[in-house]
Amino acid sequence: MWNKDKSLFLSRILTVVAAFTAVFVAFFIPTIADWYRYEMDFEAESIFSRDTMFIPMCVTLYLCDGLALLALWKLHVLLRNISRDDVFIPQNTSCLRWISWICMGVGAVLMAFGLWSTIFAFFGMCAVMFGLIMRVLKNVFEKAVEIKSENDFTI
After folding, report:
1. What does the pLDDT average to over 123-146?
2. 139, exposed or middle or buried, with CB in 10 Å at 0-12, 13-18, 19+?
3. Most exposed: 4, 40, 125, 127, by fewest CB within 10 Å?
């Protein structure tokens, strides 16, 4: 039977798997950038030439990979706290704040690379939108922490 403990355990496992995948992918970023440069000729022209995109794409992918690892670490901390039944605590609000800023940072990096490849601008906008959603979730958690704190001091 599926329950909340199994769901939380699965989330923690998937977070670790995603982190190992991000580390694994980091070793192949130059290969991915080289493949993308030669195989994606059908995409619309962008501001900068496709011939000059290898180094900016590698930098973009390494930055996004590092930021993804940081976001996964914060998600791991958040899930660890939840598994300890520490849900509405300031540390969880901090984790959500970090994740929202990381998503917005990834969005900014991807939109900057959109000057070479327009599809990345789209994914950058998606990352910024996800960051805004995480911001709203952080605000909800922040308010819940405040209400919980007031309730704990009420006799």
Report:
1. 96
2. middle
3. 4
